[in-house]
Structure formats: structure tokens, C-alpha cells
Batch of 4 targets.
Target 1
Amino acid sequence: MFKKLLAGLAMMGLGITAAMAQGAGANWPTKPIRMIVPFPPGGGTDILARLVSAKLGEANGWTIVADNKPGVGGTLGITELVRAAPAGYDIALGQKDNLVIGPWLYKSLTWNPVNDLTAVAHVAYSPVLISTSAQSPYKTLADVVTAAKARPTAVTYGSPGNGTSIHLAAHLFEQAAGVQLTHIPYRGSNPALVDVLAGNVDLLVSSVPSAIGQINSGNLRPLAVTSARRSSSLPDVPTIAESGIEGVGDFDVSTWYGMVAPAGTPAEVVRALNTQVNALLATPEMQKAIQAQGAEPLAMTQTEFATFLQQDYEAWRGIVESSGVAID
């Protein structure tokens, strides 16, 4: 699907100016736009949200203010967005975790992304990354599997939260590799990263953007990415399928990031935002900036993203149910 969408993007005439956005409603925007970031500062979603906000603001003369609303696996911020007025002044950078997994995971949620949100623009996708401290005895993912089979549950890993796509990617890896690891959930990737660097937790399972800074500085050792292809930001890091571990030959799990708004947001505002995000993603500067954070830029039309969101939402129901993870 990604290849078809990338091919479609190449045919889209994206030489679009900021003036086109001014046709979105009566002089919209006339005040700052709030970008809800459903995770703490410093994590992958926060980094991308602030990057997109800054570049959209520069290109269009808009003021977009990032507003971190972490908690409940990233669904707290999305719940706040659902309740916001659909006037084009409240948007969020969501992802697989809180948009398509959270509604199946948290029984108390009263919304779903298809009925209660408007898909605005797909921004990027990223493999999940498994890494460890540079001081760790684990040199490869195969080393981790060997240790875990020798001492079930002794190897620990931190994730950005219970039931997130990153946690479930690790769960799927455990199943495929036939090992038992001990999961330690955190409120976001950054606090998990701190504990891994301190040697309190063995492994960090995170997005690439959340870890690449510490990898580049030599503090983290990357072990594997979960996608079918290597990350362009970490070309020397093998995929799980390349790690020489029995049972994981076709392993492929990625996360993605996209802009959403409350249901009922004016169509002309949604079109303007989608147009400007896609124009931004077409620039070499933005592509490099996103890849530097370990993600891969990927534009979609509003209709394509809405279809993608609905299909992924339906697909992850079975994965969540099979994991046995449910939160009241």
C-alpha cells in the first residue's frame, strides 16, 4: 500500500502556495491553532509534531502551538480533541497507538477514530526499534533471545506504555521468537530511555525518532528494527527477520503518525491542512528532517488517509484481543 501511495504522490502537482490555504473558510485561521501532542515532551510523536507545526507555521504564516497532553497510552489527548469545537483550531498528531489500538484496548473510551475524528493528513511511518545501553552485554537481538530462553522473564524491556503499538510489537516478537520477556510500561518513551541508559532496564522498545539521538551520540546500541525493510536513518541496523532467529522470518510491524481533527471540522479547512502538509512533505528539506528523526515521510490525500485509518483500526482489533491486554 505504501508503494502505491508513494507513486501517487509523485503524480500530485504539489507546487502549492500558502495562498491556496486562505480559501479555507472566512479568513481561516484568524487565531493560533492548537496542536495536541498526546505524549510527553521528548518522545517520537512530540518531536515530529513540533517539527510539522514549526514548518507549517513558517510556510503559511500560521501560529501553531504544541500542547502536550500525555496519559492513558496517548488516548487522553485524543479524548480532549474529540471534545473540542470542530472549528479548525484544534488538531492533533496521533499515531497507531492512540487512534487504532486505544479504542480496542481501553474499555472506558467512548469514541472511535472513524465516527468521532476527521482524518486530515498522514505524515510519516516508522519501524519499531529494539535497542539497549551501549554498556549492555547484548550485542545482537539473537543474544537477547539466547538469554531469554535460558532465563525466562529475566530480560526486561521498557516501552512507552501498556497496550501501545510498540508494546504490542514486542508482544508479537515474543510470540514469534518463543521467549518470555518482562514488560515495564512507562508514560512515554523518554522516561523508558532514561532507565535503559541508567542500566535499570535491559532493552528499550520504541520508535526510531525516540532513540536515534542517543544512538548517534553512542549511548544506545540498536539491535533490530521491526519492519520488513531497514530504516533509511539506520541502514546498518538489521531487521528482525535478518537477525538469525528461528520463527521471525516474515516479521513486519511499523507505527505511523497522522494529523486528525474533531469530527465535523469544515471540509475546506481539512482540505487546506492536507494540501499544506503534503506540500511540506514534498520538500527535500522536510524529507531530510523527518528521516533525520528516524521516520519516513509519506503523504496521502485526505481520502486515502481516511481509508487507511479505517482499515488499520479494523485490523488491530484481532491483534489486541489475541494479546489478552485490556484496560478498564
Target 2
Amino acid sequence: MRILVAGAGGMLGRRLSVLPGCHGADRAALDITDRYAVAEAVTGYDAVINAAAWTDVDGAETREAEATALNGDGPANLAAACAASGAVLVHVSTDYVFAGDGKAPYPEDAPTAPINAYGRSKLAGELAVRRLLPDRGHVVRTAWLYDRDGRNFLTTMLRLADTQDTLDVVDDQRGQPTGAPFLAAQLVRLAQAAVAGHTPAGIYHGTAAGETTWFGFAREIFAQAGLDPERVRPTTTDRFPRPAPRPAYSVLGHRRWAAAGLTPQPDWRDELRDVLTGGPVA
């Protein structure tokens, strides 16, 4: 089976591109906002995984049209091309499509209500995929994605640990830290099952099991890295004002994986351990 990975230059895309059967295309090789280039690129592939995205959450507040072109129009182009070619599409979305005011894990069919421009742009992509590819379009929402390389929360915490005695980390936002290699493997499994006709189209939640706060995540990073977790101190979101509001609650439910015949991802602590050590991915 041949899988095209759009957005292969990003953190998730790099992980996807090295998996068996995957062929990566970064922004230079494939601009998903160019519908003619997309139609040509998709030809001959059994499935497409879209990891291309505008990810600058704060920047989207003043450049929403640009964010929507990549996060909304780009997935629409991919969905239209897959509809024409017969390929399956697995499109990566985000917890930011929700308001973040929940008290229990959001099910896949929970009402969406993004509170910032980035969330609106990603919701536009979801809606396009479901409209244009209702039978072969799979939307996978993820959250709090990290890896041991590049710029992300894990590498930032480890870098700051070398230069600061203590770190203040917000303790009033809850979510599910999700290792990029684990999500990449889950996306490929979903694509393979979808091509085989074993999985219903629609929305899935690709996050680790369990939940914590950024403060809890930071303490666990320190502990697993052999550092003193007491160096991490709790604080509140209002101490770090940002242009784009962040959802306070981003915990996602995983019920639909059973319908696909697939096992959800492991607990976030287990994922962190394997990401830090380069151990096996379940």
C-alpha cells in the first residue's frame, strides 16, 4: 500500500515519512493550497495522510485568512483530489475546535465551538473533508503533540532545565500529552484499515490515554529525565497572557477506535517514557 504524507517537513510529518509504505512531501514538494498540484500528487496513492498545517496559534489571530487557506482550503483540495482518485484521506485536526469549557472527555460527536482563529481555521478543514469525502474521509483530532526533537513542550522544558533553577508552568489547563511517534503509527494503522474497508469514515481522537495539566506534564518530564520535579512550580494561565485564548480543558474521548477495530494509544506517561528513551512504539 502506498501512502502520501503531506506536510512531511513538520514534527508529525517527519515521523510519518519514515514508516513503511509512506512517501513524504514537504511544503516545497507539495503546496496543499494549490489544487492542481494536489490533484497530480495524489494520483497513484491508496491513501493520503495530511499533516500539513498552519500551527502558529497566536499568529493566526492577525493572519486568519492565511491560516484558513492552509488549514481549511488545503484539506478541501486534498479531499476533492481523493474523491476523484479513489484514495482514502486521513486528515489531522485539533482539540482547538472545542470551546475548552468541558468537564468530561469530549466525545467525537461533541458540538464544536472554537474560541480562537486557529481553531476556526482547523474546523473549516474538518468540515471540508467530511463534506467532500463522506465515505473515505477520516478526521483525527490530536492535542499537546511533542517529540524529542524540534521545538515543542518537551524540548523546551529540557532546555530550560539547563538554564533555570525553577520553572513556573500553568496548572489550570488540562489535556493529553501525545507523543508524535505514537500518533504517526496510529494514523498509518487507520489508513491501512480504511483502505481495507474495515473502518467507518468520520472523526477519531488521536491522543494518549489519561490526562494532566502542563504543570503535571512538566513534572513528569523532569522525573523521567532524572531531574528534580520539585523545580517545577504551578502557576495560572493569566500569568502568561497570549494573543489567542487557550482552551482550559482539552481532554478527548476515544470511543470510536473500537468501531475501527483499533486499540487507542497508551497512557501519556508510557508514551513519554518511550519518546525520551527512543523505545518501541506500541
Target 3
Amino acid sequence: MIANSTKWEKIRADYPVFNTYTYFFTNGGAPVSKPLVDKASALLTDLSEQGRGVMSVWNPEVEEIRATMAGMINANTAEVAFITNTAQAMGLLVGMFPTTFEILTMKDDFPTSFVPWIHHGHSVRLVQPEANGAIPLSTIEQQITPDTRILILSHVMFRSGYRHDLQAIGELCKKRGIILIVDATQSFGVNEIDVAACNIDILIFHTYKWAAAGYGSGGMYVSRQLQEKYPPKTMGWYNVTYPNPDFDTTQDYTQFKPKQDATVFEQGTPPFLNILLLGEALRYINAIGIADIHAYIQALVTYLHEEARKHKVEVLSNFGPQHLSAIQRLKITPGQFRQLEESGIMARYKNNMLTIGINFYNNKADIDTLFAALQ
């Protein structure tokens, strides 16, 4: 995969961030590409020249993007909504379920997975990870109680980089009658996800990381069965239908019905610019191919591990191949991190742990630069 370097170097050339940095911080937020900047400029130009007139083009394009996003996760278009971030999505979900539903989630997960549920009065149980951050399926299963009705986890854990086997977890939840909510913010765009094959009930993801779509856009899948059984409680003017939707006249708008598909989660006027830029990012990713992206990143991860062994740097993300992700951690000293900063290498460093985020615009030379700086 890495041998076909021309393809990947052309992609890399679309990201000017590498003119300044060796960039390994995608886990925190990705740079955007030159094509995305060009798209943003074109959209703003159209808005400045046409005003409201852009809607004849923008509205149908938003629905095309919804269909594209649905296809990428093997969902029906009616099951997909746009979100601005995963915290917003989780807030929309919280009110759908009785507070008697016990939540099982991961202690090492991002607070979005448990803070809203605790605040809303749910009993929340936290699964403790192993010392290296691994969370085996057996450990999750042992923590399930008769009251557990919802399991929430990130496909890829943001801190450790541990990648869950979604198919195995989905089978467990189906067997135990548990609703499965997955946050794919740290995997969407670089790992293939099939919501049907994995028995995922709800999938949420923010696209400013691995999809490199910029801030303010994301997606949420909610199965039709779940929509029908647990309709959302939060309503706005936009996610309901009226008998006579004519806002130019005064009439009784107190009569309404919630929409009957995933757009019921879109309460107000959509963030059109963000969604249209997301569409550009999705076209870019699909042109490369997620399967190719995954294989390419896994090859770079393998190379990272080889170089770490060669340079006697401890790899903290020492998981089996099926649990490896684009997030890798190395143990280094504060002095070594200062050397990285002086060498123009951008990555997260906390508690003697260097977190490396590898995306489709990185290459072996970036990894060589990293270890050269560490020496």
C-alpha cells in the first residue's frame, strides 16, 4: 500500500499544514485541504452574490450529502441526521429513554458518553480498562446487570487508541437486548462501519478529525425501529410538520406533529455551509476509498512500531492488530517532547505520553522525522 506513493503524495500536497509542521494531531483536530478551502470560498461567494437565492441549489445538495453519508455506513437515508457535534447529539438522545434505563459505558471514554446521562438521572456504570487501555469484550460482558439497557462506547477510544470490535459488541448487545450507542468520532473516515452488520442502534460522529471536514458538522444514525419506539422529546420549529406551513400568514402553529424520520433530530435551520463542506470532505474520502485509507494507515502504524523498537521507544498502544487504530501512544520524556516541538512536530503530549494521530496525509517520512527528533 505504501509502495504506491504517488497517490498518497498527491493527497498530502492538498494539505498546506505540512509546509509548516510534521502534523500528528488529527486525533485533536485535522487541518483542511485546499479543495475544501476552494469550496468554502465558492460557497461564500455564491451567498454574497445571491443571498437566499442559493437555496434552490443548496437544499437538494444537502439531501445528496445525507444520502452519501447514509451509504458510507450502510444506513437508510431516513435514518441519518446532521449534527454540529457529538455533545449536541448525545443531548438529543438523553430524553428519549426512561431514567430507569441503566447505562453501561467506559471509564476511559470521553465525558460526552456519561455526563448528560448522569445529569439526567440515569444510573451509569463505568467499565474499567486494563493497564494499557484495552477493554476486552469479556470485561464489558461481566459488567452487564439485569438493569443494563444501554451500552455506550467510542469505536476508537480517544485516549488509548483502542479500537473495539463493533461486530462482536453488536452481537453481544443483540443477544442481551441492549441498545448500542457508538461514538465514531475517532474512526469515521478511516475505518469502515456497517451499522446493520454490527447491530448498531445509534451512531454519532463529529467530522473535524479523521474526515478533515472542519469544525461544526457531523452525522447521527438512529435506526427506524428505535425512532418508532423511542421518539425524541426535544422539538423546535423545524423538526415538526404543520397542517398549513405558510409562514407568511398568521395561523394556529400550536398544532404540529414531529417528523417521522431522522430529520426529527434537526430542530432548526441547518448549518448549510458546514454541511456542504462536509459533503466536499466526504467526496474526497470516497474518491480515495476508506478501505484503502484503512490499509494505508495500518501500514504506517506497523512502520511506527518497527521504528519504535529500533529506537528503543516504548509503544503504549500495544494491542492486537484487530484493535489497533490511527491513534498511537509512545512513552517519552518532557525533554524529548521539547525536541519535537523545536523540530516542528505537532502532537499531543500529556503525562509522559505522546499521542500520534496518523491520517491519510501522513507518510513514512513523517515517522522518520519523529524518531530523528527523539534522538
Target 4
Amino acid sequence: MSMGIGINTQKPDAGEIRDRQEDIACGVWFTSSGNPIPQLVKYKEREEVHSIRNIRVLTREKKYYCGIPVMEYLCSAVEEEMEYLFKLYYYLEECKWKIAWLKEL
């Protein structure tokens, strides 16, 4: 007879990431507890390097995509009078950042 001990001990998995991701460089600030907070993003578009500063983190959540631990940040930023909404993914095991553009506002 099962008493529920040891059941559901696995971390919940969010499945596959459906957003189209691009590699980026990300300048971060680490809190005293070791949490990374994105401050600057650099990405390439048509062989030209662009920067996004003044990133506002709206939400931050640790998720598991296909068993891989990822910190997912929902962010917004205003650059050149345009507001951008995007997700940043920090792959904990690889120490790698990716971006998924949600929309230009």
C-alpha cells in the first residue's frame, strides 16, 4: 500500500521552449545570494551589434525544460523611443544566455 512517500519528488518540467531563441551576451549583476540580474544585453542583427540597457525585469522563475534547469526572465526595455518585451533565458549548467523577442510595443 502506497502512503504517498516519495511520490512526485521530481521537479516539474515545463516541456520544450517554444520561443525562437537567439544567442546573446548579457552583462549581469549578482546579488549577495548569487541570483543573476540582467543589466545589459548585446545581440547581433544583420552583422551589426546592438545593445539594450535599462532592462526592467517583470518576472523571474526557475524552470526545467526537458530536464534542463533554466532561469526565465520576462523583461521590458525602452531603447530609441521603442519599448521591447522579451524573455531572457539563463541556462544554469552552461552559463549561457539567450533571448526570445515577444514584441515591439
